Amino acid sequence: MSDDPSVLEPLFKRLGLNASAQVFAEMAVQAEKESWSYGAFLERLLSEEVARRAESRIALLMARAKFPFQATIETFGGVVPTPLDFSFRTDLKRNMLGRFLGPELVSANRSLILEGPPGTGKTHLCIAIAYKAIQNGFAARFTTAAALINDLRGASDFESALKVYTDPPVLVIDEVGYLGYGPGAADVLFQIVNGRYLKGKPILFTTNKPLRQWGRVLHDEDLARALIDRTLHHGEHLKLSGASYRLKGRKVDLDAPLATEEAGKNGQNA
Ligand code: ADP
Ligand code: MG
User: Fold this and answer.
1) Would you tell me the crossing angle of helices 145-153 and 158-166 to the nearest 10 degrees?
2) Does the beta carbon of 73 lie inside 6 Å of ligand 1?
3) Domains of the chain: which residue ranges?
């Protein structure tokens, strides 16, 4: 038996108990001072190990998710630490999203298609949902439709490239709808959707296009229909509307002709 950290440290490490190796010595001093029982000491040591492992797992999953920015449900509609306030997005109620924030997102394969114009918070909400999934212990991966299609079309090893998107329990595919994917896009996307559907894994899509236009966007009506069908089998389609959060408080008339266009028409140099 030994209190000597130099004896215990390699043993902890050998067992993969890295946090214990780090905190053992200091905790032993405190335990002595405060006369903890052996049981209390062991409980504290193991709790610390478990807590640190959970923390580093979340940090690892966050890095692997490749989110373009950090977003949480709590920061939606208000500045932290203001409590949740959906005042800006009055068409969206928190209870509509509740279904996607628990472990049922994964266990019940709850896919989501968030449709809406730019700036309505689609990307933010998908990141926030995927972030919750990570906190619930699931790996998640964020990508845009364009990046995914490019990645898979250019892949030398298609099967392993496909796995990047079919393995994670949660996948976000952002921005379906910006035209110009070229031929083959629907096929690639369908393989991901079908692969995940067969394994019962959800996808969170965002799009600026109504679903009936996905066929045109992806250059294949039948495949577009098939992939929407699979996504919505256990999933939901939510539409966001209203003003852009990016342009909040500003008056921007998107229907007005661009200044340069106008100047050109009038025969002036802008
Ligand atoms: P979209 O994907 O619909 O174009 P984003 O989710 O990218 O919109 O939102 C644009 C920016 O505005 C992001 O920085 C996002 O965090 C922020 N944002 C959007 N809606 C809200 C909201 N209701 N509350 C707080 N921030 C928001
Ligand atoms: Mg977006």
Assistant:
1) 160
2) no
3) 5-56, 66-239
Instruction: Give the Cα separation of 153 and 101 in Å (integer).
Output: 32
Q: How far is CA 64 from the centre of its chain?
A: 10
Select from 124, 205, 207 the residue to mutate for testing ligand 1; criterion: most ligand atoms less than 8 Å from CB: 124
Residue 264 scores a pLDDT above 60:
no
- Spatial distance between the Cα atoms of 18 and 16, rounded to a whole number of angstroms: 6
pLDDT digits (tens, 9 = 90+) for 35-89: 999 999 999 999 999 999 999 999 999 999 999 998 888 777 654 433 444 565 5
Q: Is 66-239 CATH 3.30.70.20?
A: no
Residue entry with tokens 């630490």 = 81
> Considering only CA atoms, which of 216, 197, 231 is closest in space to residue 114?
231
**Which of 245, 247, 248 for a ligand 1 pocket mutation test, highest count of atoms within 8 Å of Cβ?**
245
Is the shortest distance between the CB of 121 and ligand 1 below 6 Å?
A: yes
Share of the chain above pLDDT 90, in %: 69
Residue nearest atom 19 of ligand 1, based on CA coordinates: 121
